[in-house]
Amino acid sequence: MEQSRIAQPIGSALDRFIKSNQDHFAYASGELSQLLRDIALASKVVNREVNKAGLIDIMGGMGSVNTGGDEQQKLDVLANIRFTRALQKGGEACALISEESETFMDLNNDGKYVIAIDPLDGSSNIDVNVSIGTIFSVYRRKSKPGMPIQPEDILQKGSEQVAAGYILYGSSTMLVYTTGHGVNGFTYEPTLGEYFLSHPDMQIPGDGKIFSVNEGSYNSFPDGVKQYVQYCKDKNYTGRYIGSLVADFHRNLLKGGIYIYPATAKDKHGKLRLMYECNALAFVAEQAGGKASDGKQRILDIEPKTLHQRTPFFVGSKNMVDKAESF
Ligand code: AHM
Ligand code: MG
Hints:
- The chain is an alpha+beta fold.
- The chain folds into 2 domains: 14-199, 2-Layer Sandwich (Fructose-1,6-Bisphosphatase, Chain A, domain 1); 210-326, D-Maltodextrin-Binding Protein, domain 2 (3-Layer(aba) Sandwich), CATH 3.40.190.
- The protein is 31% helix and 21% strand.
- The chain starts with 13 loop residues before the first helix and ends with a helix.
- The longest helix has 21 residues, at 31-51.
- Helix 7 (223-234) links the parallel strand 9 and strand 10.
- Bound molecules: 2,5-anhydro-1,6-di-O-phosphono-D-mannitol (AHM) and magnesium ion.
- Residues 99, 121-124, 214, 243-245, 248, 271 line the site of 2,5-anhydro-1,6-di-O-phosphono-D-mannitol.
């Protein structure tokens, strides 16, 4: 194991880990560390709300007012508010783009970082008590702090990310992130309210036997994707599809596998968003030794044209993504 990839033993608290790895960052002024802490803090609040999700119907549904006087919100809207507030208060980010918002949001104009976030992904699973996730990317702004935000601050290629990761609200809650020096996973201990390092220096197996794709759309897949799915079946691979990108990705990261959301007849560019979903997971995958592609091109090399741009997505074990590309 490369000495620089992990500087803390299993069981280290996230805060301590971030602090001790701070000198890995190209601009080690502590702001990126603080930003990661802000994201972790917001995720704890969201986690609490996700855990109470089933109670909302008992305690008052959407549109009603809770005891604190806050109107009850849909969980994904609420998650968006939680992350926005945490980043706004933190002050390290100048702008936020979110799957939940039409356009970018100005935060602290003196901030050095731009955040892209899908606050709560897996919308169809929110109401049915199935794992969901938060996905985030961090970019360094190109323009000088204090100046108005420019398009080139916001629309950066995935290869420019300085940090990225996800939070998985699953049977336990995990935060997995990279700053470009490998991938580390932290498990949340709810009674202590703290994340602890549980998965140091995560590596995705080069090969796997799991394929994750919504086969209900098979008839509208491009021919190459149909052939690759058939190839997986001929090889007796296991089909696993939760329909929550973070959960499907995380399982494949641990066990080896490929996640596919291809172009379909309905969605010519697939369904997933480059800026909020694919770039972050592509960065994590590559840092863990895996691969992410749109079928032809490396995801991290795609030049974004619009905030909500979609892309076909093939991500996971390197040899599996290579094989899928060959079809
Ligand atoms: P969302 O951003 O509306 O939640 O959609 C993204 C989700 C992914 O988590 C998941 O992998 C995919 O959509 C499932 O889509 P489908 O139901 O078409 O298979
Ligand atoms: Mg999403």
